[in-house]
């Protein structure tokens, strides 16, 4: 069996076309959605991601501002900037790129962002809203994965989904979204005994462990839908996911690649969240 490819890049392009229409409809009513991205320090990967986010805003006709600060920026200064952006009517979404330098308390920063402008969906209010089944702004990566499952016509209701990884930004919100959609969800973590026993039961596997090519074909049920959230470098420095694509694509029914899978959807759902924030909170 050779798996169908879930093409995140294509789904992202289609979704962006839809976002672009809604942006122009909103602009016609005098509201131009705006995103502020804050980057602290000089992590080269962060620079690439952040410039991609700003570029994507342009593609859908959104306003964006990029604020860059040196690594020694104080937490107080950063909080001051967030408060200013919270009160800036031209800005509907605020994203503080992670990771932050160690001297800055990440939790304090994320909680300082107004929940109505929290387009990452990381604020306690937004995490809690998802948890209690009344989602407001949702974490971009799992939100994007939900769109990928929808586009690949994967049935969630009654299905068994296994999430490998329990982070606050991917694993936990992912599990909540699929649970809400009617799936039976197992959340595995780095300490799970006999992980393959769990993944082999799954109709849907979401790999978000941060270990290159960790999920192999022998760990899958035949025909499973596999979404790879990983972003790693392999032994040759090439970008690769948490799934061993070569073996997994022989067993899976559908699989998302890296690159060209979840990554482009994460950025697209950031735009979607900014649009939703502008539509709902102005
Ligand atoms: N506050 C915050 N929010 C984030 O959403 C956030 C963050 N911090 N810090 C870093 C991670 C990483 N991230 C990516 C998004 C898209 C791609 C992406 O588009 N990847 C392309 C490939 C890119 C390449 O070639 O390097 C793909 O998968 O096809 C990658 C990584 C968002 N993050
Ligand atoms: Mg990808």
Automatic annotation (TrEMBL):
Query: Does the keyword NADP feature in the UniProt annotation?
Result: yes
Q: Does the keyword section mention Transferase?
A: no
- Gene Ontology terms describing biological process: L-histidine biosynthetic process; methionine biosynthetic process; purine nucleotide biosynthetic process; tetrahydrofolate interconversion
Which segments constitute the Tetrahydrofolate dehydrogenase/cyclohydrolase NAD(P)-binding domain? 139-280
Keywords linked to the UniProt accession: Amino-acid biosynthesis, Histidine biosynthesis, Hydrolase, Methionine biosynthesis, Multifunctional enzyme, NADP, One-carbon metabolism, Oxidoreductase, Purine biosynthesis
Q: Name one GO molecular function term.
A: methylenetetrahydrofolate dehydrogenase (NADP+) activity
As recorded in UniProt, its EC number(s) are 1.5.1.5, 3.5.4.9
SUPFAM superfamilies associated with the record: Aminoacid dehydrogenase-like, N-terminal domain, NAD(P)-binding Rossmann-fold domains
What range(s) does the Tetrahydrofolate dehydrogenase/cyclohydrolase catalytic domain occupy? 6-120
Specify the pathway.
One-carbon metabolism; tetrahydrofolate interconversion
Q: Which residues form a coiled coil?
A: none
CDD domains to which the protein is assigned, alphabetical: NAD_bind_m-THF_DH_Cyclohyd
Gene Ontology CC terms:
cytosol
Q: Which reactions is this enzyme annotated as catalysing?
A: (6R)-5,10-methylene-5,6,7,8-tetrahydrofolate + NADP(+) = (6R)-5,10-methenyltetrahydrofolate + NADPH; (6R)-5,10-methenyltetrahydrofolate + H2O = (6R)-10-formyltetrahydrofolate + H(+)
Q: Which residues bind NADP(+)?
A: 165-167
Classify the source by domain of life: Bacteria
A Pfam family this protein belongs to? THF_DHG_CYH
User: What quaternary arrangement does the UniProt entry report?
Assistant: Homodimer.
Family membership, please give it.
Belongs to the tetrahydrofolate dehydrogenase/cyclohydrolase family.
> Which NCBIfam families does the annotation name?
PRK10792.1 (NF008058), PRK14186.1 (NF010783), PRK14189.1 (NF010786)
- What does this gene product do? Catalyzes the oxidation of 5,10-methylenetetrahydrofolate to 5,10-methenyltetrahydrofolate and then the hydrolysis of 5,10-methenyltetrahydrofolate to 10-formyltetrahydrofolate.
Protein's recorded name: Bifunctional protein FolD
The lineage, from the top, is: Bacteria, Pseudomonadati, Pseudomonadota, Betaproteobacteria, Burkholderiales
């Amino acid at each position: 069996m050779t798996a169908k490819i879930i093409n995140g890049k294509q789904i992202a392009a289609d979704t962006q076309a839809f976002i672009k229409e809604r942006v122009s409809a909103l602009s016609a009513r005098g509201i131009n959605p705006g995103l502020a991205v804050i980057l602290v320090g000089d992590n080269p990967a962060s620079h690439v991601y952040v410039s991609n986010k700003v570029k994507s805003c342009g593609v859908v006709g959104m306003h964006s501002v990029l604020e860059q600060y040196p690594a020694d920026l104080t937490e107080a200064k950063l909080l001051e900037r967030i408060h200013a952006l919270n009160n800036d009517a031209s800005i509907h979404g605020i994203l503080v790129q992670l990771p932050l330098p160690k001297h800055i308390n990440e939790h304090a920063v994320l909680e300082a962002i107004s929940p109505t402008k929290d387009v990452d969906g990381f604020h306690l209010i937004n995490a809690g809203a998802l948890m209690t089944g009344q989602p407001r702004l949702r974490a971009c990566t799992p939100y994007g994965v939900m769109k990928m499952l929808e586009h690949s016509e994967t049935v969630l209701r009654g299905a068994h989904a296994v999430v490998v990884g329990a982070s606050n930004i991917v694993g936990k919100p992912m599990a909540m979204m699929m649970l809400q959609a009617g799936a039976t969800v197992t959340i595995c973590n780095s300490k799970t005994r006999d992980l393959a026993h769990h993944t082999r039961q799954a109709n849907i596997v979401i790999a978000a462990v941060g270990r290159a090519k960790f999920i192999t074909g022998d760990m899958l049920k035949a025909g499973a839908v596999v979404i790879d959230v990983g972003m790693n470098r392999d032994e040759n420095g090439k970008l690769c996911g948490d799934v061993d694509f070569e073996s997994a694509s022989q067993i899976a029914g559908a699989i998302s690649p890296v690159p060209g899978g979840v990554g482009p959807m994460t950025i697209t759902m950031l735009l979607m969240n900014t649009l939703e924030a502008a539509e709902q909170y102005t």
